[in-house]
Amino acid sequence: MRIGELEPGPRDSIADVGVRVGHTTLIEGDDVRTGVTLLVPPELPLFAGAHRLNGNGELTGLEWIRESGLLTTPVGLTNTHSVGVVRDAIVAARTGEAGWSLPVVGETWDGVLNDVNGFHVRPEHVHAALDAAAEEFALGSVGGGTGMICHGFKGGIGTASRRAGDHAVGVLVQANHGRRSRLRIDGVPVGREFDDVPLPGGSIIVVVATDAPLLPHQCDRVAQRAALGVARTGGAGENSSGDLLLCFSTQPVGETVRMLPNERIDAVFYAAIEATEAAIVSALLAAETMTGRGTTVHALDREALEAILERYG
């Protein structure tokens, strides 16, 4: 399903800028619906920046990114109460590469479908996700997105990419946010066409990667614009939502670096906005109906969605 006006990359994925992604998905009995996702950049360190739309959430390591302007570790995504174990496992995996680490690990809350206090994510699951990282990866109810809910439908992991002139912008989201009545897809008020459901809104983590040569302050600016992609689908940064956004540039960091002139950065802004919107939609379309802890969360019906979009023309 094509979202927006810009041209996608070859994979329509964050892999279009060299980022590999791996998952470990945990589904057991009636109560375990969780996991972990790892994003592995093409090299480290990289210039990076971040933005907070609403801060009822966690994305570790941001103080060092703000201080140094550098992303120095892979990025982990998991459930709220597993951030610590994922962080520690990334440190353990990097002990041979660096004397210390401040890993970047984000979370959203999967406590409707998952026993979030069961601490089911363990170090071996993080290591398995790292080992599985590849340019082709699953979407929807997988990895850190396994138990997530988005706009009252089953949510999870989504990705997209867009061209920005001579450069590309890729986005990956862990989508667990929004109210159904507010959902818009490609400008159409889709959520109003479905019965509302009393499921809580949650949070979203957005990771933006681009091969445009950006300096850290420009990464901050792109991360901020990606929040507009969240808004375009109906997200509002509600009080209870943790809406945290990270951006990094894949240009090598060394004594000599390049900078995209600010006069040319609008194309990257537009691509980040549209790719974020498209990544959220991809999470919704890839997710499957799931039952956990006595609650069933239904996937967004693709055929019904296409009929609604066609009717609005």
Task: Describe it.
- This protein is an alpha+beta fold and 313 residues long.
- The chain has a single domain (14-312), classed as L-amino peptidase D-ALA esterase/amidase (4-Layer Sandwich), CATH 3.60.70.
- 25% of the residues lie in helices and 27% in strands.
- The protein contains 6 helices and 14 strands.
- It is globular, with a radius of gyration of 18 Å.
- The mean pLDDT is 96.
- Strand order across the biggest sheet? 4-3-12-11-10-9
Class by alpha and beta content: alpha+beta
When the domains are counted, the total is: 1
User: Would you report the number of β strands?
Assistant: 14
Element string (H = helix, E = strand):
EEEHEEHEHEEEEEHEHEEH
Any low-confidence stretches, pLDDT <50, length ≥5? none
Count of separate DSSP helical elements: 6
Identify the CATH homologous superfamily.
Answer: L-amino peptidase D-ALA esterase/amidase
Q: Which bin fits the share of residues in helices?
A: 10-25%
The third-level CATH topology is: L-amino peptidase D-ALA esterase/amidase
| Strand proportion | 25-35%
CATH architecture assignment: 4-Layer Sandwich
Gist of the model:
The chain is α+β, with helices and mostly antiparallel strands and 313 residues long.
Features of this protein?
globular; 6 helices; 27% strand; alpha+beta; L-amino peptidase D-ALA esterase/amidase; 6-stranded mixed sheet; 4-stranded mixed sheet
Map the helices and strands.
Layout: E1 20-28, E2 32-40, E3 46-55, H1 62-68, E4 70-71, E5 75-79, H2 83-93, E6 104-108, H3 123-132, E7 149-150, E8 153-154, E9 156-164, E10 167-176, E11 203-210, H4 216-232, E12 242-249, H5 266-286, E13 290-292, E14 295-297, H6 302-312
Parallel strand pairs: 5-6, 11-12
Antiparallel strand pairs: 1-2, 2-5, 3-4, 3-12, 7-8, 9-10, 10-11, 13-14
Helix pairs in contact: 2-3, 4-5
